[in-house]
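hey so u asked for the seq, here:
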Amino acid sequence: MEAKRDGLVREARSEVGIWSTIGVGEVRGLFWNAWERGKEHAKRWTMMDAIFMMMPGERERTIVHVILQIIFQYVMNLSIGLISAMFIFLWNVGSLCYAYGEGLVSGVAFFLLVAVTCVSVVGSYLFALGGTVAAGATYVVKQEQRRLAAGGERRQQRVRY
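ran it, structure tokens below
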């Protein structure tokens, strides 16, 4: 029964082709699902990193240092997650080109177009995110340096038991 259904789906896909609005819509859906999975992985990894940062044994840190470290960790995790999701997406697009029964030239042309688009979207997003985080971190570090230069050194607080 399932083999019959798969045969009918493959036949229908080969009729419309990967270049149709149906094929392009399916590829678009695959891309955004992969994008969301990459972001979800980054969130989970960052949460685990934050939990491990709370473990004892680290030197004393200011709240600014902790926040910056979590932000940088999230950007790194997001980069890894989105790049991994991009490669998985491109693998799925190759499989989808085969499933639609495209010819070699048409399938390769479609795959290359999708690959260039995918790499440009992910690269632009990560470049903009990295630039924003770098500019924000530079601002925060300069403000912290001004505060320390103005005599706002961190006060040591004693914990009384």
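Helices lie at 2-16, 21-53, 63-99, 104-149. Residues 2-149 form one domain.
lmk if thats what u needed
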